[in-house]
């Protein structure tokens, strides 16, 4: 009989201890109050997490060096340093090619540095002019000024039969470009380079005529009155990454005649 009462009493004792342990845990649980009345004195501060850092989605390279600007830079660069990668590499001076003239001047290296400095100055002027035009065009107060500048710098005259003569003067480049648009896909351009601040007695003329052939082949001819040479470039486009070039340079300068033929391979990888 005693054993019959001892078992329920033992179970009741164990359950009581479990309840007291649970109450003890709840009493010390973070965020719970023992007295609800004290809740009105509790100061709650809301913590706002900072937003995730936004990544810069603007491509500054494409914003500054636009397609039109890059095309002008590439055209000017080719005129000064070579029309193909093989010609640029072949004619680039090195320390084994320098020579000293009778007056002690290192002709080759100094001329190369002078050309690169001149190109850098042109690039800076062109970049400044382009972004000033962007500002004038986008500002309602100066848009009229931009329109006048464009009208003075650009002209177009239709001559019939699908032909149109276009003229564009660049203030930063000090050059006038004349192009004849035609329905035959023939590239042509006459550039008047005013190197000495509109000194018409010393104008450098560059003529360019490009004729597309069959089998992805193109023939370009460049004549530069300043260098007194005719450069003929035959390009064979295998694909967008592989181009074979054959460059023939014929000099009309009798004092410094340097005729050469250069075969090159342009491979982008």
Task: Walk me through the structure.
By secondary structure, the protein is α+β, with helices and mostly antiparallel strands. 36% of the residues lie in helices and 28% in strands. It is built from 6 helices and 9 strands; from the N terminus they run H-H-H-H-H-H-E-E-E-E-E-E-E-E-E. It has a 9-stranded antiparallel beta sheet with strand order 1-2-3-4-5-6-7-8-9. Helix 5 crosses helix 6. The chain is elongated and about 120 Å long. The N terminus is likely disordered.
Separate helix tally: 6
Please state roughly what percent of the residues sit in beta strands, choosing from under 5%, 5-15%, 15-25%, 25-35%, 35-45% or over 45%. Answer: 25-35%
Strand numbers in spatial order across the main sheet: 1-2-3-4-5-6-7-8-9
Strand runs, count: 9
| Mean pLDDT value | 78
Work out the helicity level: 25-40%
List keywords for this structure.
elongated, 6 helices, 28% strand, 269 residues, nine-stranded antiparallel beta sheet, single chain, alpha+beta
Describe how the helices and strands are arranged.
Elements: H1 2-27, H2 60-64, H3 67-81, H4 85-91, H5 107-138, H6 143-153, E1 154-160, E2 163-170, E3 175-181, E4 187-194, E5 203-213, E6 217-224, E7 229-237, E8 242-251, E9 260-267
Antiparallel strand pairs: 1-2, 2-3, 3-4, 4-5, 5-6, 6-7, 7-8, 8-9
Would you summarize the structure shown here?
The chain is an alpha+beta fold and 269 residues long. Helices cover 36% and strands 28% of the residues. It has a nine-stranded antiparallel beta sheet.
